[in-house]
Amino acid sequence: QVQLVESGGGLVQAGGSLRLSCAASGRSFSRNSMGWFRQGPEKEREFVATITWSGSSTGYADSVKGRFTISRDNAKNTVYLQMNSLKPEGTAVYYCAADRVAFRVVAPRTPREFDYWGQGTQVTVSS
Fold first, then answer.
1. Rama region for 85: left / alpha / beta (φ>0; ψ in -120 to 50; rest)
2. Distance between CA 70 and CA 72 in Å, rounded?
3. Alpha carbon distance 102, 21 (integer Å)
4. pLDDT by residue, tens only, the chain of 127 residues
5. What are phi and psi of 6, to 5 degrees?
6. The predicted structure's pLDDT at residue 34
7. C-beta atoms surrounding 121 within 10 Å
8. pLDDT value at position 90?
């Protein structure tokens, strides 16, 4: 059974930092792109960051570019999201996702391109 388990969420003041982790189990995703999405209160799920299987290519939403960094450790089957300079509008449930397709050159950015999802971790940024 494939599982993606996020951790590292919590309450932080505006300007602070958090590091999210997503540990995969049940199969290896070392050949697959992985991504982070978020869903705020009464909002649709939105793209945050994505990374190719090798980590050589990443992509970010304009709203987080320069503040967030996605990375991965294939040996640990884990992807990370370092979030700096957090803003109150970043309050959301953050979801990790994995792509079924192997060896993509360009990492996907839309929810429909990801096949496996975690349960999410809450991030609350206070002003």
1. left
2. 7
3. 21
4. 999 999 999 999 999 999 999 999 999 999 999 999 999 999 999 999 999 999 999 999 999 999 999 999 999 999 999 999 999 999 999 999 999 999 999 999 999 999 999 999 999 999 9
5. -85, 150
6. 98
7. 22
8. 97
Beta-carbon count within 10 A of 77 CB: 19
| Interstrand relation of 10-13 and 121-126 (parallel, antiparallel or unpaired) | parallel
80 C-beta neighbours (distance < 10 Å), count: 21
The type of residue at 78 is T
Amino acid identity for residue 93 in this structure: V
SS (H, E, C) the chain: CCEEEEECCEEEECCCCEEEEEEEECCCCCCEEEEEEEECCCCCCEEEEEECCCCCCEEECCCCCCCEEEEEECCCCEEEEEECCCCHHHCEEEEEEEEEEECCCCCCCCHHHCCEECCCEEEEEEC
Neighbours of 120 (CB within 10 A): 18
